[in-house]
Amino acid sequence: MPPATMLLDYRKAAAAAIVGAVLAALPAAPAGAQVLLSDFNCAVAPTAHVAWPAGDNPLWEFDVVRPAARTTTRGAGLEIRDVHYNGQLVMARGHVPILNVEYDPGGGCSCFRDWSYTEVGMATGTPLPGGNDCVVLATAGNVQTTCELNQPPNPPGPGGDPGSFLGIAVEDFGSELVLTANMSAGWYRYRMKWHFYLDGRIWPEYSYSAASAVCTEAAHRHQSYWRFDFDVSGTPTDDVVTEVNPNEGTSTTFTEEVMRTWGDSRDGVYWQVRNAGTSVGYDIVPSNSDRLLAVDAFSKFDLAVLRYHAGVYDDGVNSLNDCAIRPERMVGESPSNPTPESLVGEDIEVWYRSGALHPANSPWDCDIVGPTLRPQGLATASEPPPPASGLVLESARPNPFNPTTSIRFRVAEAQRINVRLYDVTGREVATLFDGWARENREEIVRVDGTSLPGGTYVVRLEGERVSGSTRVVLLR
Ligand SMILES: [Cu+2]
Q1: Residue 280 CB contacts under 8 Å (≥ 6 apart), including other chains
Q2: For residue 214, how far is its CA from the centre of ligand 1 (angstroms)?
Q3: With a threshold of 0.70, does the pTM exceed it?
Q4: Which end of the chain, N or C, is surrounded by fewer C-beta atoms within 10 Å?
Q5: Following CA atoms 209, 211, 214, 215 in sequence, which dihedral angle do they give, to the nearest 10 degrees?
Q6: How far away, in angstroms, is 105 Cα from ligand 1 center?
Q7: 3-state DSSP helix/strand/coil % of the chain, to nearest 5
Q8: 368 C-alpha vs ligand 1 centroid, how far in Å?
Q9: CA-to-CA dists, residue 336 to 321, 326, 328, 339, 441, angstroms
Q10: Residues 313, 316, 320, 326: what is their CA dihedral angle, to the nearest 10 degrees?
């Protein structure tokens, strides 16, 4: 698990030019005033409708379902439905129907199939007008779950629950809309978020925290299984899924049900989901934090592509101690005859696993995981040309900073990139980025100075074909 100083963040990689173009076309309004929440129903699904930015032509429109309005066997967390970007359906449904905790052998704790329909109190500050009892608009930056309560600058664990609001909190950061739910299952606390960006990206985020207890103090692994039914462009049977390995220059389109792994992180494997007719769709890009917990015999897969069956949302397990995921059950076939079904011309659902390792005696560690869903063919403005010098490494913004700042970079050719933070004596303080940077895609590296002394630091980027550095100043 990375220390707090190693928070990596590709996901906030907004293409600045694209966002700028979109922002210029929007009327100026204070953050928060740009979200329209409507059609509330706290008891059932959907719980509310969201439009953002508010106005005649919102870029994003979708329905939300609060965890307590469960729609699958053991709940599915904070669910989104009928997600439209720029007037086009991009995701029919996204949720987490399967949530597991697995312990090391011999400690007296085996595993749990956790549930995700019990909401637990979060803090939202004073809500802005426009929400109701179970879906509130919070002033951006004011939402707190058990995760934040157990993290710096607060003392580490065992926290508690930071407020009394139950439901979905919505924050408008101007270029990013964030939905948050805080859930409990026994001693565990689960934070689930959806981030929507003006340029069409989606970041589904999951984090794991807990109160101190015998099992949560034992070493364990959390596994969340995201289920995405894209149905891009509104034609469910036209989705096609392709695995791309940029390092090896290969791509494979799946024609029958399959379970896959991202493999060696140096390969930069990701998956494309496309409408066969329009070529519009999303890339599912694993994050560095997802890759920290490799797949094993218990967790089964990193990505599964399955044929959709109406009314089947999970593997049917509904018992705390019946844990391991049973992918063969998720598509309605006989478990005794798990023959892969054809995907050709069928409605497809894509499952993606995020997880985190919690070592012994650290139940409150709040690892942030989840892939980036990167749009293709949905851009609202043209992309910048590849940098002629091979690399654009921008100065940190803000700089000087306290306690966090971020640095954007973009490479002309795809390659493996390392970004490290050094203090003035040349000592390496943190690895900020270690992974595959794609061709002409902006990446964002976040520097977290929470536990560092004030002073000047050097951020050095080393690639296979480019290098560069920039200075940052941490004020105390
Ligand atoms: Cu944990």
Answers
A1: 88, 232, 233, 274, 376, 377, 378
A2: 12
A3: yes
A4: C
A5: -30
A6: 16
A7: 5, 40, 50
A8: 12
A9: 22, 12, 9, 9, 45
A10: -90
What does the alpha-carbon distance between residue 303 and residue 321 come to, in Å, rounded to a whole number? Answer: 24
Six-digit token string for 95: 């949720």
CA distance 165 to 180: 11
The dihedral region occupied by 278, where left means phi > 0, alpha psi between -120 and 50, and beta the remainder, is alpha
Relative to beta strand 428-437, strand 415-423 is antiparallel
Which residue type occupies 433? Answer: F
Q: Ligand 1 centre and the CA of 182: distance in Å? A: 15
Cis peptide before 158 (omega within 30 of 0): yes
Whether residue 199 contacts residue 15, with contact meaning beta carbons closer than 8 Å, is answered with yes
CB contact at 8 A, 301 and 261: yes
Q: How far is the CA of 202 from the centre of ligand 1 (A)?
A: 25
Question: Both tokens of residue 295?
Answer: 């797949």
> Is 391-474 a CATH 3.40.30.10 domain?
no
Q: Do β-strands 455-463 and 202-210 pair in parallel, antiparallel, or remain unpaired?
A: unpaired
Average pLDDT by consecutive 10-residue portion of the chain (476 residues)?
A: 30 29 40 83 96 90 97 94 94 97 85 96 94 95 88 70 95 92 94 94 93 84 96 88 94 95 90 92 92 91 93 90 85 66 93 93 84 84 71 87 83 89 93 80 80 93 93 91
8 A C-beta contact, residue 33 and residue 55: no
- Numbered ranges of CATH 2.60.40.1930 in the chain: 391-474
Fold of 31-376: Beta-galactosidase; Chain A, domain 5 (2.70.98)
